[in-house]
Amino acid sequence: DAKTTQPNSMESNEEEPVHLPCNHSTISGTDYIHWYRQLPSQGPEYVIHGLTSNVNNRMASLAIAEDRKSSTLILHRATLRDAAVYYCILREGGADGLTFGKGTHLIIQP
Amino acid sequence: NAGVTQTPKFRILKIGQSMTLQCTQDMNHNYMYWYRQDPGMGLKLIYYSVGAGITDKGEVPNGYNVSRSTTEDFPLRLELAAPSQTSVYFCASTMGRWGDTQYFGPGTRLTVL
């Protein structure tokens, strides 16, 4: 899987939007961009994924740059429960496991 | 659906002991995975399986063995436990289609003393 770069940590206030950036300059044409998050003492959970177009679901939005070399996970209105480590991962389908970096530790202030 | 379940939740082993970490999924997923997560780090792939009877090594397979006799179960065996195997172990599964997501279990926290 291609490499991704994320900030080590970010801080935001409750009820404000959060934009989590991810750079993936070596992405291939068949790599999907996946975001997972890991709440304290839990296993990772899927947040959202996309290939070329921006994506929305009940948890978040994913904005993908036109050249696909970067993406941004958007939490529209952060809550304290969104405090977690967020991982940006590139992968194709099939057998390959996910390649996790250190992710971004998101801190939410009340 | 219960999703992906793992047992036990916690375990303490002495150096040289062996144990099996259990993983079961009820989503009829073809692909299953074992990861380990050391403190402050991301997950690393130990072994994976694309179906019953088929397994393959991941990034960090040394000291571990797996088997996949059914679609639902994917146990991880630790032989001769060492302190370096102190970690949190996560099992995951996915159908394996293009771009598909992985579903993770709650993890097993293992300490080797």
Overview of the molecule:
The complex is a heterodimer of chains A (110) and B (113). Helix content of chain A is 0%, strand content 45%. By secondary structure, chain A is mostly beta strands. Chain A has a 5-stranded mixed beta sheet, with no helix packed on it. Chain A has a 4-stranded antiparallel beta sheet with strand order 2-7-6-5, with no helix packed on it. In chain A, strand 3 and strand 4 (45-50) form a beta hairpin. The model of chain A has no long low-confidence stretch (mean pLDDT 92). Chain B is mainly β. Helices cover 0% and strands 50% of the residues of chain B. In chain B, strands 2, 4, 5, 6, 9, 10 and 11 form a 7-stranded mixed beta sheet that branches. Chain B has a 4-stranded antiparallel beta sheet with strand order 1-3-8-7, with no helix packed on it. In chain B, strand 9 and strand 10 form a beta hairpin. Classes of the chains: A mainly beta (110), B mainly beta (113). Chain A binds chain B through residues 32, 34, 36, 41-46, 49, 51, 87, 91-95, 97-103, and chain B through 4, 31, 33, 35, 40-45, 48, 50, 56, 58-59, 90, 92, 96-107.
